[in-house]
Every structure is written in C-alpha cells, then in structure tokens.
Design a protein that fits this description.
By secondary structure, this protein is α/β, with parallel strands linked by helices. The protein is about 35% helix and about 20% strand. A five-stranded mixed sheet has the order 2-1-3-10-4, with helices on both faces. It has a five-stranded mixed sheet with strand order 7-6-8-5-9. Strand 1, helix 2 and strand 2 form a beta-alpha-beta unit.
Length: about 240
C-alpha cells in the first residue's frame, strides 16, 4: 500500500508541475543553470525548459510558430520585431548588457589590441555570424571601426551562435571573438586575462543591450519574466560578467 501511495504522490506531483519553454540567446547559456536554480527556489513546481541558439534563428522560429513562451535575446532588435508583429505580449526590456572579449587558447601579446589579428601566425579567427548573432555583429563592427575588415576577410571562421563560436575558438581557430560571459564558465576559468584573453574596447562597438519579451500571458511565464528582471537575477548576471540596467 505504501508503495502505491508513493507512486500516486509522484504521479500527482508530475501532473502539478508546470513547464515553460524559454528561447535563450546562446551567450546566456553559461548563466542559465544558476538562474534556473534561483528561480526554482521560489517556484519549485515550474519546470523551465531552455532552447539555446542565435537570436536571429530563434526569432525566425518564433515567427514560424515555434511554441516558446518567452524570449531572452542578445539584442533589442529582435524583441522589437516580435512586438511589431504582435507576437510579443510585453514591450522589450533590457535585462543585461553584454560585452566582447578576444580569446586564444595559446598565450598572445594582447597589448597590440585588434592589430594582433593581422599577425601572420593567426590564420583563423572565430566569429559569430553577424547576420543572425548580435555578438557577431558587434565584433564585426569593432573590426570595421579599426579599419581591419579587408585585411581579415580571409581569416573568418563563422559560428552560428556565440556558443558555437567559443567551441571553434577552442578547437579550430587561432583566436576568436567571444561573449565575455563565457569566460565565467568553470571550464574556462584557467584562461588568464592578458595572456589568453582581453576585453574588446567597448568604444569600438554599439552597446550590446539584451532584451526580454514574454510571448504568452501565462502565470508561470510572467513569474519567470519578473524574476529575470529582479535583483536576484541581476546578481547572477553580474557574476557572469554582464552589466545590468
């Protein structure tokens, strides 16, 4: 009887657990586990399911009917587009501001800034696709502002998202433009500032304001939406190298 009772309790618990589907820009992947854990302390019955990708591709999926409840973009452009198309049910709000870094598995002389990328020893540079990934667009903007786009045009290795770009930087490229937030992952903690990575001068690219919109007016969705804009979430974003509004 006890066994049957426990099974029934488990079954009822599963029925009561609500799930929400959140489309998340790849650069936020490193912070998502901590964000979900903190959210579930307050809302233990809500299962947050995350789909990661480039903001452009996630937006295309949403416009084509993908069943996402909430969208955390890497910029404000795509959430604004969803509002204009009357798909979003809230106005876009900035939840965090991201920044760029250059990473190399090997030690480099980063005192040269972006001029380092013209060095003959650097043959492949990983960058997120600037057409679909806001961090890729920002990286390309920085390169153009340094008037290096022509010199570097044959060195690009494109990732579909910033997380794929980090993977390319670690394996297939000599150096890569990454989201600074990725450096706060435990797997990246052994890389040293000034030796393996350096910030890209923020004056070289438009600030990366990351926007959130709800796609469904559902209690659990709005609870997660409110949490992402809360002080608790801001602390987590800060811990992963973001600036917060």
């Amino acid at each position: 009887m006890l066994k049957i009772f426990l099974i029934n309790v488990l079954f009822v618990g599963l029925l009561q657990a609500d799930s929400i589907n959140v489309a998340v820009a790849a650069n936020v992947s490193y912070a998502m586990d901590d964000l979900k854990k903190e959210f579930n302390k307050m809302h233990p019955d809500t299962d947050v399911k995350v789909t990661l990708g480039s903001s452009g591709k996630l937006t295309a999926q949403i416009k084509n009917g993908a069943p996402y409840d909430l969208f955390m973009s890497a910029n404000m452009k795509y959430p604004n587009a969803l509002l204009e198309d009357k798909i979003a049910v809230t106005k876009p709000v900035v939840y965090a501001k991201g920044s760029l870094a250059i990473l190399s598995v090997r030690g480099r002389d980063f005192s040269k800034g972006l001029e380092l990328l013209t060095d003959g020893s650097i043959k492949k540079i990983a960058i997120a696709n600037p057409k679909t990934a806001p961090y890729g667009k920002a990286a390309f903007e920085a390169v153009k502002n340094c008037k290096l786009e022509n010199e570097l045009q044959n060195k690009w290795v494109y990732g579909e998202s910033i997380s794929q770009t980090v993977a390319y930087t670690m394996t297939a490229a000599d150096v890569g433009f990454i989201a600074k937030s990725s450096l706060y992952s435990p797997k990246m903690s052994h890389f040293k500032e000034g030796v393996n990575w350096v910030d890209v001068d923020a004056k070289l690219y438009t600030p990366i304001e990351q926007g959130i919109v709800a796609l469904k007016d559902k209690k659990e969705v709005m609870e997660f939406y409110d949490f992402i804009l809360s002080d608790k979430a801001k602390e987590i974003f800060k811990n992963y190298g973001y600036l917060v509004p």
